[in-house]
Amino acid sequence: MWARCSLLAIVLVAGACDGGFDSSSPSPQPSPTSPQVVTTTWPDPPRRDEGVSQEWLDAVAARLVEGRGLWEAAGLDAYDLTYRGLAIFDCPDQITVAVRPDTDPVRTRPGDCSRAEDAALPIWTVESLFDLVERGVEQRAHRVSLDIDPALGFPTRAYVDPEYGVPDEEQGAEVLAVVPAAGADSP
Hints:
Blueprint: H1 2-17, E1 38-40, H2 54-74, E2 79-85, E3 95-99, E4 106-108, H3 126-138, E5 143-148, E6 155-161, E7 171-180
Antiparallel strand pairs: 1-5, 2-3, 2-7, 3-4, 5-6, 6-7
């Protein structure tokens, strides 16, 4: 009986996962009634060993140029960035980084994310997330995606998985907030 139920569950899950994503092109732009988030998201392709196409890399590269241009135009060089890491080894708590001109970024970690090994994790800033995606595009990473804020251009989600089948080498972050530092000019 259990074998038949398990097989049925596998068939149902496999059928539900075959969502018909077109992995050869980026996702469509949001409609006027959708939330104001501009995305270039890489959906899971039908086979996990398929990488991104050149067309996809070109779309991500264009989004990268757009995001950097908006961010530079905003002129925000002192800010607090709150994010959640997307890598499997990242601390699951929100992390806030204080970014100020002429100083190294300072990370704070709430909760129990103060393990000794956490010191080796990247400290993400807007600039370092742009750099991560740029390296992913240049190196034709297995997976690379970038979503940007439509007003200021900062990454709202950046993710790179360099190689298929290599565990624990993916990097990225979901940005939850970018707040101008006290005394900084607001865009």
